[in-house]
Amino acid sequence: MTAFYEALWYGESVGDGADRDETLTAYSAVRPDDGDWNAHCAAPGADPHLLRYTSFEAYLDNADAIERVAVTAAMIEAALAGLP
User: Fold this and answer.
1) Which of 1, 35, 55, 80 lies 20 to 30 angstroms, CA to CA, from 20?
2) What is the pLDDT of residues 33-59, one digit of tens each?
3) Would you say the pTM of this structure is higher than 0.85?
4) H or E element: which one contains 41?
5) Phi, psi at residue 49, to the nearest 5°?
6) Residue 70 contacts residue 17 (beta carbons within 8 Å)
7) Strand-by-strand arrangement of the 49-53 sheet
């Protein structure tokens, strides 16, 4: 089995993926108009983070996440740097 990740923003899912880097690109859905990821991530309640599950099946079965990964502005910027 392969781990599966879900990206959260303000407590809501903004995407998911089979690996951490792929999942971080989901934050493109909440890209700030001014491009200031530091301010965007520091906004009260934003709390960007990934939840890691043991597998896609565990995610679908609503199993508890096995890890919570805090997401920084730098992580998001690095992941989005390769996108068009």
Assistant:
1) 35
2) 999 999 999 999 999 999 999 999 999
3) yes
4) helix 37-42
5) -160, 160
6) no
7) 12-17, 4-9, 49-53, 67-70
